[in-house]
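Researcher: First entry.
Model:
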Amino acid sequence: MTVASSPKRKTGKAKSAAQIRLDYSSLVGREIVLFTEQLKGQPVKSRVLMVVDGCASLDRGGSYGMVDSLVNNQKVIVQFRYKGQLVSVDADLKRSNGGRCNIMLKDKITPLTRRKYRRVVLRTPVKSSVMPTMILKPNRLSRLRWIETCAQNFSSGGILLLLPGCLEQGQHLLLNIELKNLDFPALVVGEVKFCYQNDNNRYDTGVEFVVSEEKEKHFDATLLKKLPGVIFEYNAAMRLELEKKLGAWMKEIEHHQE
């Protein structure tokens, strides 16, 4: 297991979406990333050519011509950096009669850098399996289709995985994470929060751990009675304790780096 601390960040409350005031004209000439209904899980990069009244015209040659393949009238999510902060904006993709690709940017801007839990860059083996909808008995855990992969980063609240295929947001996974120096259950349940294809044709997949106290929000009572209790050992108290340990761990690493 290889671990390193995340870059130091200034403390203090992050600005809410309502506090950010963005002049969209500042996007001209800059690269943005689109997440579309048409190409789920696959980010599309392009450059903004001009912006007029919240309508941004994009370079049609972006992402090796993928921008030119996007169909008219679809919802997209736009991500870009603004004053050092990664933000997200909902938009509608519209094509002109001449084929120009335009995105109509909404007013609401969502910062993406806020995190509930401190994160460490971590490379450690992980076994993951998509949870089946059928009854999952303890003696069937070993029969599931497990994929061996590697964590990219880790926190008490979730993990970033590198997977060979795209998963839908909201899918649940069973995870076995190799953490030799931390008190962590052998099995945890996680919910897929995002899944984006990277430049190496693999998928960066963000997974949030499901603590025991919140399992009813994810599974109905009938199914919970049939699921093995061992997969819900991770609880809010363990998460809090792990958060404290990771904080102390990071401070120790940063102290040695000074």
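Researcher: Second entry.
Model:
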Amino acid sequence: MIINPATDPVWRNINLHTHTWRCHHAQGDVDAYCQKARERNLHLLGFSDHTPLPDGRWASIRMDMSHLEAYDLAIETARHQYAPLHILKGMECEFVPEFVNFYRETLLDERKFDYLVGGVHLFDCDGQWLYTSGGVQDAKTLRVYTDFFIAAMDSGLFRFMAHPDLFAGSWLHWDAQTQSCMRALLDAARSLEIPLEINANGLRQWPIQDGACRRQPYPWLPFWEMAAEFQIQVVVNADAHHPDEIHDGAVQRAFLMAESLLDQHSAFSWLEFFHASHGRSAVRRDGAENGRIPFQ
């Protein structure tokens, strides 16, 4: 879908979740995504590939450290080539406390990344890292996931948190326990002023059976209905793994979901500032934003 800059609200003209071939499960490089964003009249395109990690863990689903320099250079080059499209340099990061200094000192301070995304694809449960999609299997792991997600928000590292409902691809119970955990998560997001993401990538995946119904793995409707009660800050993103996914049909469905559930002013007003500053002042380089203390 082509954006109409004169009539569409700012929050529809932005995508802050974009991958490249370097993560081993996406296609296309920076130029291809920028070209598609410009074709569709986006104002702001943020790249947030899966960050490399200093010890090389989970290497099959993220960038190699040897590709970091080229990724950085490709985005910096594109900033000049694709004006007036505003391009931001980011990373999607797992919350691993031992790598906080790498995120802050190497990515934010040394390389001047504009923002980091908290992507809790894995969480630490009693010393074992579990995948969020498939790893939340019982009341204990649901509570551990919730507490881990809240700790990631409280770290001060992340400008927003990706797909908080990723666990819903394998967790099918909107019961009292689930509601208690999600209320805690949403209350923390509101208190910490951390935006949560409606992630369109779940709308591109095969539906799952949930009782008598079939649904997409995420975004999970009961979660976002509850989120509307908390009036949290929100961003809708493509989570693009192919250039054609920039503002594709899945993103339009995510926009419609957001419009049907959320108060647009309270949900998206933070993006007015983010857009106006082009991300440059939205994240303090010490990782302490919105008055919060960085993770120690």
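Model: Note on the second entry: The radius of gyration is 18 Å.
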